[in-house]
Fold:
Amino acid sequence: MGKEGGCGQNKTMVKQEQELANRPDNTAFTQQRLPAWQPMLSAGIVIPGFVIIGLAFIGIGVALFITSKNIQVMEMDYTGFEPDSDCFKCSNPEEKNCVCQLDFNISSRFEGPVFFYYGLSNYFQNYRRYGVSKDDAQLSGDLDNFKSPSDTCSPYDTDGIKPIVPCGSIANSMFNDTFLLYREVNGTNELVPLDGKGIAWWTDYNVKYRNPNVTPLKEAFEGTVKPLFWPRPAYELDTSDPNNNGFINQDFLVWMRRAALPDFRKLYRRIAQGDYARGLPAGNYSLKIAYNYPVLSFQGRKKVVFSNVSWMGGRNDFLGIAYLVIGSMCVFMSIVMLIVYAKFKFPEED
Amino acid sequence: MARDTEDRAAGTHKAERRQRGRSKKKPKETRTVRVHTGHEHNPNRHYANNRIKTTKYTVLSFLPKNLFEQFHRFANVYFVFIALLNFVPVVNAFQPELALAPVVFILSVTAIKDLWEDYRRHRSDTEINHMDCLVYSRAERRYVERFWKEVQVGDFIRLRCNEILPADVLLLSSSDPDRLCHLETATLDGETNLKQRQVVRSFFDLDCEFDPLKFNGIIECEKPNNDLNRFRGYILHRSGSRDALYKDNLLLRGCTVRNTEEAVGIVIYAGHETKAMLNNNGPRYKRSKLERQMNVHVFWCVVILLLMCLFAAIGHGLWVFQYGDKRPVFDVLSPEGAELSPVVAAVYLFLTLIIVFQVLIPISLFVSIEIVKVCQVFFIHQDQDLYDEDSDSRLQCRALNITEDLGQTQYVFSDKTGTLTENKMVFRRCTVAGVEYSHDANARRLALYQEVDSEEEEVPPPGGSLRRDSSSSQQSSRVVLRSLSTKTHRRTGSRADAKRASILSKHTAFSSPMEKDVTPDPQLLDKVNECGGQMDFMRFHGQPVSQLPSDLADIMDFFMALTVCNTVVVSSPNQPRQKVRMRLESKSPVKTIEDFIKRFTPSRLTSGSSSSSSSSLATSRSSNRGCSGLLSSPSAESTLAKLQEEQAALGSAPPRYDGTPRSPEDGELRYEAESPDEAALVYAARAYKCSLVGRLPDQVTVELPHLGKLSFELLHTLGFDSTRKRMSVVVRHPLTDQITVYTKGADSVIMDLIKPPDTETSKGRRQKKLVLRTQNYLNLYAADGLRTLCIAKKVLSKEQYACWLQRHLEAETAIQGREELLFDSALRLETNLQLLGATGIEDRLQDGVPETIASLRQAGLQIWVLTGDKQETAVNVAYACKLLDPEEEILTLNADSHEACALLLEESLHYIQTKFLCSSSDQAAKAFLPNFAPFEVYPPSSSSPHSAAFTVHRLGLVIDGRTLAYALDQSLEDRFLAVARSCRSVLCCRSTPLQKSTVVKLVRNKLKVMTLAIGDGANDVSMIQVADVGVGISGQEGMQAVMASDFALPRFRYLQKLLLVHGHWSYSRLANMILFFFYKNAMFVALVFWYQFYCGFSGSAMIDQWYLIFFNLMFSAFPQLVTGTLDKDVSAETLQQLPQLYMSGQNSEEYKPYMFWMNMIDAFYQSLVCFFIPYFAYADSDVDVFTWGTPITTLALLTILVHLGIETRTWTWMNCLSISFSVSLFFTVSLCYNASCPSCFSPSNPYWSMQRLLQDPLFYLLCVLTPVAALLPRYFYRACQGTLFPSPVQVGRQLDKLPSETRRNILNLGGVEAGSAVRPVPHFLSLGTPSPEGPDENHQRAGLHAVDATEKDTLPYTKDAAKLPPEPRPRPPGDAEPRPPGDDEPRPPGDDEPRPPGDDEPRPPGDDEPRPPGDDEPRPPGDDEPRPPGDDEPRPPGDDEPRPPGDDEPRPPGDDEPRPPGDDEPWPPGDDEPRPPGDDEPRPPGDDEPRPPGDDEPRPPGDDEPRPPGDDEPRPPGDDERPHETSEALKTSAMSASSRAASSPRPPSQAASVQLPLPPDGDAQRVRYCRNSDHAVRPAARTQTDAVL
Structure:
């Protein structure tokens, strides 16, 4: 009571009417009483969990390991670093249009479909400034960017006068060795057909990279120059197939997808045609290499890889082993904890 | 009701500092206020008007200003810098626009928050600006309603009762006959007592209504300033005369007009120039301890970042260097075509990497923390347990950013009055003329209130069975009256309503029925009636009243003193807008000698018998002049209310004790006092029919039984001051016509001023007996924790008075040193008093205070109480609230000089150290104490030597304000702290607000601990502000403390849940979240770092820039926010039942530096796993950068979320939802992103990557394997830790898991039941094992003591317990049953006697000297039983007397045993002489010698010792039966001279007291070590204390 006795004010009346207006809501949320599950990391729960996880992992690991072991891989270096190699002669950068040959033997049938990769080592496609050195708009066929390529291509945007198309370092450094695979059949070399279609991502070929809507394609490239290192302009990349030219050339697409690591391989061709659809039969083969791409200057290596694939991709033992290791670790830890648990039986039953 | 208006005014306080008014431009030093005549421009227009604007921004200025403010935070600048760095082509890492996104996001979130806050301020401003007030309009020639904002300087404002002042107003007219205006200034200074403001002198004599039109003065005054207590100026009248203005003329904005019907004033300062607004400081920015810790680690993150960048930059330089001149085909030349040199490339790369790695500095951390804190505040705010239904108030969090500090507090500094106690003074009992009146009925009534209170929460009891007496029904009707008058539509009938109303009213100041309706003691009432009757008779027969029997005269005088000797203002609710006044004739206090002579000429010295008639005359006069015609006449409604009220009062008022119905009018008087005790005394007197009915500056009207109304001429009022500790009034007694001085004051002071009785005469002997008995009862009261006041009187002869008046008037008119002169004058007057009696007032403890304190203490909090109260009261309340334990020793420090204080501290330190170190070698130590050898007789050993260490912690320190002042000196503060920190509880009495804050500051800075200050009054503000966490009690003392606080609580007991539960949760949640943040970012960034090894350190990232940038902000943010907000490591119940768990926060166990590093290491490990598993899995494949990087991102996200899952303690659907939301958000965003634009988002062009990945079985295999591999170690560690060495918190969590029944059993085993904490409970760690690392704060204690395991039971100090050897099992149930409090069973000696035989004695040489012999060892029997203080039960008679035969304490002869007669007579000469307080000279040794050891009070001879059994005083059982001998026995201190002086003429407390020679002690100061072993001991502490001031 006290002083505020007789003369009330509006405010105080309101106050009295809504008495207890300040009472907090009594809900599980506001009172922090939401139903909750408290996982307790105690031995009783952990041990069975670990065992189950461990066993499951071991199972997966075994499966993966077996799958991986069934995959055949054949790798051959053709850098020409060693003097006895046929390609040694070509490793001199002065040498132009050098062709060398790589002979090899397949002892047993190489199950198909066989994928034919080329591989580069110590080649940093993931180098940051290299990675940005392209013009996506240009590559999607935007003619404006033909005339004025993006800054990101610099210094491979113009040759000083004319714009370079396709601009940028990635395109400029496109791998340009070519391979022909011969199989020795009855003393003669029979050309193994290599399928160059569909080796790039479908979306790259159909969506991401587009040639300008100009026919013939050559006209679109008028007023531009080819990348410095290229022997031919983009619209003449594939002389055999006019539809495989410009930005949707499969080899170009494969190259433009930068490798993650400095030692990488890229799909060159598939061997899936005719007699070779079921794989490469045993026998002697020779690979004719048009050796154009210099790598020795940066201690790089070049190789070709023949491999078949399974559902999990190429041959890779690591994953299976990893599963096995982690699985066994889980089991091991569960044993350790079992011992601990047995020794310090803990007072949950109190 | 008042609260709300306060709130509103409080809104203005929230303001930031704002721009000053335009008057600043004026070069003049003063402000001139002219009246706006309405003809020309307003002459005051250039002053700020009354519109207030506390908003920071306007629509236009918001963006720039807010951005500017946000850039004050370093992190924001950093992130903006990084974002801008992206615009530099050579170093850019991301698309520049994209890189801006997070910063913009963060900034805008903060901006929106600021905007919202500003909007709220705007709304509150608008509300305040649109409040109404009456402003005089010249045009209309009347007062019209205006908004506050329209008020201008120079406007005339009419103020009505209970209105809030809109501006600073100069008071020109008041309806009050004395030209006063009463103000409540609670919003400004927190004081609820009414302040009087006076009309400007020249308007003082204006009899009719003030007419603004006639005002023509010009006011010159100071420029606006923020000094509330200063105002100077003058009015220049047209006549040319000047009239000075003082602060007493100024009404300040925000105050409330009370008790004054109406006042008129002129606005001097308006709006932001008002003093209230100028005093507004913006809220402080506090940074929590956790944040400070975190910032260190942010700094370390920066270091790590720089190291990583540096490493990569050097790597890049080397990488470039290795190619020499022949750059490889993939190396891109600079745009100019030139080759970058390795060094330049490295420098560029360094900058690039800072951008790429910026995620390491968690940009969203700050925002997340803020979000989490806001949520925590929300939850704290929402907690129903912190809601006080009575006052309908809940906890307010005023600081948003220190919630987690609540969980880390180590020291609690608490105010006492109003914080621990209710600040409601309740009259409990009194002693008049040496006879005690116990007021049992009153005590029962009070007990009933408490019961009713507790019942209230359940169901309203059925009507009719209410146990309250008439007063309660009266109360209810009165409340109804009020509610009707405030237009609520509640009818009288409902009992529940009445109850509710009474509950509501209970929380308004000073006026609850509990305080008001004192039930008189029947015996005393009889005597009063008898006395009144006799006086009536005598008056009738013309006999002089002085013939009254002296005991009856004393009773009469006692009640007169209670009624008159105060400054209580009387008001009547029937006519609420009017002061009740009964004026005989208009007279001012004696101002001149002539006046005196004139007044006291014999002709005028007539009896006051005509008083009643003249008083009625005065009443009518006052009602006539009340200007009531101006206001609306009482409405029909209020008439109705009055009718109803009268009906109720008449109908239900049961007979009073004397059989006569109480007149309703009588009950309607309301008293408003400066201090609640005053009001309590007046109410008490009213219960005996001695009612104060009116008070004027020169006259007090009292209604007495049988005599009717008497008017005392009030000659002087010598107000209370804390130095004198008393107040006096000089009145002319209307019956005897004598000039009488009534003095009321602290017992310690008054007792010294009592005229030494003349033992020759019978009257003198009676007087002496009276004094002794009163002292005895005072001790009893003190033991009960009552606040004691002594009442005394003195009759002055006219000559004496004239003599005194002469000098007093000189003093009053003195120009220099007036204060001192007045003080001296008061001292001259207040001598040779005649003791009338004493009163005991209870300041009731708030509910749950002892339990809260016990539980906080178990939580390892050190609790210090800093109070302005006197030492005795403080000590008693400390006992009552279990701050001090009867079992613990009390160190009392009272010193009068710096040197003395230094010595004291030194001694105390030695004492403590000897307890620590030399306990086992006490024999050796004893050798150093030859002086004391005879007295050093210790009980035979019954405890282990370890207990010495243990008892050290059971020390309580009591220090008074003066000593504190010395102790806080720079040279002594370290020693003081050293002493104080070894004490379990510290009690600082008589401390000033400044000292409070100094203490807090000292502890905070020197001990580097987290401090919390809690208080309710304005005097606590400074302490609240200094502490790390300031808590205000939104109680009775206004808003000041609340305004300054970070958290405002309705009641003290809520502190328990606030700290133990919310604090703990907040801390644990935030700590875990911050750690997780660091981990998360480090883990994510490290992925990119590892990649640098495979990309030529080129700053390339395999993670798409979108993921990099938004990972923190979007993908991983929600789950941790949810966890940070909702996670409960232990349930609220367990946290409250096991306060020990709180220590994890105090010791920062959830966030220790090593944890940061462990987390970093774990982060690097996990990132290695997340990087290299995909690395090897995709080795020898044709994978491209981002097809490889996206799985890594996914894996990292999954790993982080699972990691969070491991760290989450409680899973609710919110957690599950947030985690699945996070995962699905990631996939949704990336799928959309990867499908959105085929040729955008250079350089990654992730078109269709995710879609392809989802078709790749390898991706899923990785998603299963990697998180498991990454988290295996952590999971393993957690699993083992939870099983092998669980932390206390984990044990608590395990308890949570148990079914509630089992849990309760276990907790009971632990005995940790709140409320039963009389007996400290075993440490809860007995459930598990001790935590591996001891709290490092306690290193000073560590190693100094080892505690025996058996001692644990009584060990309250869980911090120490953490170092105990593990006790593998809970104690067997039978053993550990919680003991009932107050367990009185005699225990075998030594059972819980925690001290070893030589425990106390080993004192270093030099230490011993000032200590009296028999220091603390002579313990009384019954020592061991811990009694709860406040235990009122009668003790079993055999409790104290029959000592066990082998009683271990050989007592000093005659200490407390029944002594041979004749032992007691030598009262040391000179001991009983009143000494002036402040006499601190060392006393001659001989002076003290004849005193008993450990008992320094002089005992009078002929003490009334063995009371006759039929002693006539009614003594309540258990009250005065308390064994006082023990108290005397235990008194061991030697006191300072002054303190002795203060308490010297004190009778022994019981018959069986002995006097022994006091050891020689020449020092003025002493340390007292009271071995308080029993409840009954408390008087020892009390009575010995001194009055230093």
Observations:
- Residues 761 and 1158 of chain B are 87 Å apart (CA to CA).
